[in-house]
Amino acid sequence: MTAVPLGAVGGVAASGAALIGLYVLALRRTAGLAAAGAALAVSVAAATAAAAGLRPWNVAGTALVAAGAAAVAWVLGRSRRRRRAERSALAAYRTGAPEIPRFAALAERDRLAVELHDVAAHRLTAIVVSAAAARRLADPGRAAAALSHAAAAARQAITELDVLTDHDEADLDVIAALAAESGARYRSTATAVPPSTAALAHRVVREALTNAARYARGSATRVTVEAAPGLLTVTVGDSGGTALEPHLGTGHGLLGLRTTVAAAGGVLSYGPDGADGPHGPGWTVRAELPFPPDPPGRTPGGAPGPRRRPLWRGPTALDWALVVLAVALSLGASLLSDDVPDAFRGVLPSVPVVVLSGLHAVPLGWRSRAPGAGLVAVLSALVLWWGCDRAGWTRPPVSDIFLVYWWVELTFLYSAGAYLAVRRGVVAPVAVAATGGLALASADGITGSRAAAWAALTGLLAVPSFALWWLGLVTARRRERRAAAAARGRELLERDADAAVRDQRRLIAAGLLRTARQHAANVADAADAGRLDAVLDEARAALGALRELLRDLRGPDGASTPPPTVAGIAALAGRYGATVRYRGPHRAVTVVVGVAAYRIAALLLAEDITLTVLRLDAGVELTAPPPGSPGALRQVRAVADAVGGTLTRTDDDAVRVWLPEVFPSPSG
Hints:
The structure is a single chain. This protein has 19 helices and 10 strands. The protein has helices at residues 6-28, 31-51, 56-96, 99-137, 140-163, 172-182, 195-215, 253-263, 317-332, 347-361, 371-390, 398-419, 422-425, 427-441, 450-528, 532-553, 568-576, 591-604, 630-642, and strands spanning 185-188, 221-228, 231-238, 267-276, 281-290, 579-583, 610-616, 619-624, 646-649, 655-660. α1 packs antiparallel against α2 and α11 runs antiparallel to α12 (398-419). The longest helix is centred in the last third of the chain and has 79 residues, at 450-528. 44% of the residues are buried.
């Protein structure tokens, strides 16, 4: 029996330990760190081979083979890391999904509270202001005007409460009319904006003017509307004044409006402006409202979308690892021979081999996104190799290359079945069998008719080729069934959420809303009877009842955790005292991306910060100030990395997290 040298045993053991270490690193750490570890391992392997006195081509072969082995370990570790993240996300979603209808109802409750405030409080405050002024001045004409205004405003409030809606359609003329009605100085540089943006701007102006009437009596108010590309800025300020009387406000107007503006992707700010008027400090409300919806792939304001990711990150990282493996096996193995391989004896024979090996391997990087085009490139490289082989330019022969590296074609056959439509994908196994038959029929050992040999070999290769393609089809069907089941589950949850929202509306309409409506009706009746004191008393009582109503509507949410979805981030932010700005059109995202976004938001949210959530076709981007703890930042990076995402810093040192969706099934 031949003894195995201890050095060889030690080398194998060291190599195995290194591969296990790389696998664990890829499983437990980020992609960049794992890639750096793999590069270090390859460098150590090459340096060790050089230190052992191996010849240059052996050192190069050692480095290439080590890179291939490291790529395998990296692929296995990263694949398992992503599967674990997906299982964890699905488990979290299943646990939190029952809360989706309840939190939808809570969101609707808050929306109704804001609308009730906007509809009733504005009208009732105006009634109190005009009635109090008329009674104080004791002017019969002023009293008659106040009564007429009270009757009209109360009936308008009743109508608006009956439909419980705000202005779905508005334009800049409505804002100008509101400013003129309030006696404010109005200036606008905007010509035309989308109706939804104008409606939101109208709400901002109305709330600000209502507050000015309550708390800054006698001040000069100004309304400014300015338009820039994709942005409408609304500013309402006063010069300072005195409060009409205490306890007119509900305490929820600006807070609710800030949430509404943020949900539309805008920013609402308010506070003293630093300039004192004749009666006290002035106050300014400013809203920045973006429009229109951001085009896919672009951030608001026209800034570039998410940055290009390194090859070791994202959904295609595993495909590029296969490229490394293919290059390592095709070139590295031949360089480990005792003598210089024939293919590398001089420049002329080595260039075709290196180029053709690259052409045969690099298309694996597009295996998932464009398997049809990738397979065409691989087979074209094989045909080119066959032509160079017939011209005597390459060694080893193409028949040997196909036998050893057929796994590349088989990989593409599986991808063609998994990602291409059946009508297009069925061509793939035929093309692989025919090209493979051509390569094998050119071998030196073939005797007789090569055309007959090509036909026979094509038939033999067709069996495994169609088998791999069919396996890809089965995988695709299984994936489609899972996606359909998930879609049905989401549809049922959406139905339950819609039902919960409708129930919330019925609750408001049946009880609390009727109370507010009755108070408005009492104001109208008193105005019709010409009783100014009763109008004032009823309006004050209505505002007090509205304050109680809104307090009840904004009761505690309970101790349950919001559902781990992109929409659930808003409820989560409310618990932190933070603001969420959603940008981009509403899009459904996969469970994995939704849960990852929610978990990252939980790590980034803090009191008084603003978290921006940008929804694009390709994924979700979150931007926020960096968390105070370095450990929290590491956790954010780990959560993003596990689903193929990235963490970067913006120019103003904010944290930007990009969570990509898995590439959709390509068409070719």
